[in-house]
């Protein structure tokens, strides 16, 4: 089965701020019907790169059988890790980058590799905020998830201070 996954992550412009992800899965079933599934979630105190990785992971983990996947992301970091073969270099260098520094988010990269393992995945970059309309939808999902977390965090703080 062929599946298209669109992803986006948001840390609301603050590397230590609340983050969220948005993911959309699209596929056509045997009867020719288009199906779509939206996944989103919010997290507290994270970075945009972590949210981009989580958006891709969640989409791949949602697949219940091996698929041919085309994954669209506006994260050059995520897409280049695969298309420019950065991951092979990181693994070869003991999960260190070209400057011999530890690769950030190794836990998520390992989870992403495990999620992608059963599938044939092609990563595609789209320019953010003027790219593919599905990526724009993902951005809204990610932003809403981050905002919901920020609202909850502010409410928790307010209730704690009373």
What can you see in these coordinates?
The chain is α/β, with parallel strands linked by helices. The protein is built from 5 helices and 5 strands; from the N terminus they run βββαβαααβα. The chain has a 5-stranded mixed β-sheet.
Cα radius of gyration in angstroms = 17 Å
Mean pLDDT: 87
Low-confidence stretches: 153-162
**Widest β-sheet, arrangement of strands:** 3-2-1-4-5
**Can you count the helices?**
5
Q: How can the largest sheet be summarized?
A: 5 strands, mixed
Q: How many E-type strands? A: 5
Distance between the termini: 54 Å
Which term fits the overall shape?
globular
Q: Can you give the helix content as a percent range? A: 40-55%
Strand percentage, roughly? Answer: 25-35%
**Class by helix and strand content?**
alpha/beta
SSE string, helix = H, strand = E? EEEHEHHHEH
């Amino acid at each position: 089965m062929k599946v298209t996954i669109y992803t986006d992550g948001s840390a609301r412009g603050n590397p230590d701020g609340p983050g969220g992800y948005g993911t959309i899965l699209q596929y056509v079933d045997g009867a020719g019907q288009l199906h779509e599934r939206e996944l989103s979630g919010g997290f507290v105190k994270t970075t945009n790169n972590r949210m981009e990785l989580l958006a891709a992971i969640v989409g791949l983990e949602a697949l219940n059988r091996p698929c041919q996947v085309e994954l669209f992301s506006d994260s050059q970091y995520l897409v280049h890790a695969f298309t420019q073969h950065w991951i092979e270099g990181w693994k070869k260098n003991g999960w260190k980058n070209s400057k011999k520094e530890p690769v950030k988010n190794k836990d998520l990269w390992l989870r992403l590799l495990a999620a992608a393992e059963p599938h044939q995945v092609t990563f595609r970059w789209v320019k953010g905020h003027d790219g593919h309309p599905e990526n724009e939808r993902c951005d809204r999902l990610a932003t809403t998830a981050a905002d919901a977390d920020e609202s909850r965090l502010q409410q928790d703080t307010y209730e704690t201070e009373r």
